[in-house]
Amino acid sequence: MKQLVDNNMADVIVTTCGTLDHDIARVLADYYHGDFAMDDTLLREEGVNRLGNVLVPDDSYGIPIERWLQPILEELYDKKRHWEPWEIWYELGLKILEEERGSESFLGICAKKKIKVFVPGPTDGAVGSQLWLFWQSHKDFTLDIFGEEHQLSDIVHEAKSTGAIMIGGGISKHHTIWWNQFRDGLDYAVQVTTAPEWDGSLSGARVREAVSWGKVRSKARRITVEGDATVLLPLIFGPLL
């Protein structure tokens, strides 16, 4: 995804707070390789969190994020009190580029390329919790959610055509197709997912289902690719880079 942004192949990113969390944390500290079948009770006792087969020690996640982020929020607060969330992510991207491993950051390359990052669930993660923590002592510090939605609305409505690469599903996928329904749907849509269709989840819903909602045009070029995104994305985008 960093390569796509760096090669000017993306205009907008819609993602989760978790993307911000782990992007920042992995620049500041180390994650480790584990196993899906590890003893989770033992891991908790040792202060290690598990993401599938990736191990994230407490000292590599919430703690470094808090130490890094709180002073930056003080700086942003001194600039102004009211922020659209994408503006904060942009500022964090510029800051993370100053770190030793900043060039590895997805948020950093988005800031460098001036690509707006929209996070429709901005408090659903470690970064969002730090914003809430900061707000506890700065009650006039506010996030302008509606202002951000207006930004995304303008981008969608001013586009001659729209296309989306949707990795998985959830809030990121839905927010993307939701706004596109107001222009009669996406013109191009690709989804990569491992979720089954029969469980009724948005991650499992095939792109064709969105046609019934007007979120993808009936004549759109569209496809759902079933499989592991870490395997499929290099195969899909490799020839384009």
Automatic annotation (TrEMBL):
<comment type="pathway">
    <text>Protein modification.</text>
</comment>
<dbReference type="Pfam" id="PF01916">
    <property type="entry name" value="DS"/>
</dbReference>
<dbReference type="GO" id="GO:0005737">
    <property type="term" value="C:cytoplasm"/>
</dbReference>
<dbReference type="InterPro" id="IPR029035">
    <property type="entry name" value="DHS-like_NAD/FAD-binding_dom"/>
</dbReference>
<keyword id="KW-0520">NAD</keyword>
<comment type="similarity">
    <text>Belongs to the deoxyhypusine synthase family.</text>
</comment>
<dbReference type="GO" id="GO:0034038">
    <property type="term" value="F:deoxyhypusine synthase activity"/>
</dbReference>
<dbReference type="InterPro" id="IPR002773">
    <property type="entry name" value="Deoxyhypusine_synthase"/>
</dbReference>
<comment type="function">
    <text>Catalyzes the NAD-dependent oxidative cleavage of spermidine and the subsequent transfer of the butylamine moiety of spermidine to the epsilon-amino group of a specific lysine residue of the eIF-5A precursor protein to form the intermediate deoxyhypusine residue.</text>
</comment>
<protein>
    <recommendedName>
        <fullName>Probable deoxyhypusine synthase</fullName>
    </recommendedName>
</protein>
<keyword id="KW-0808">Transferase</keyword>
<dbReference type="InterPro" id="IPR036982">
    <property type="entry name" value="Deoxyhypusine_synthase_sf"/>
</dbReference>
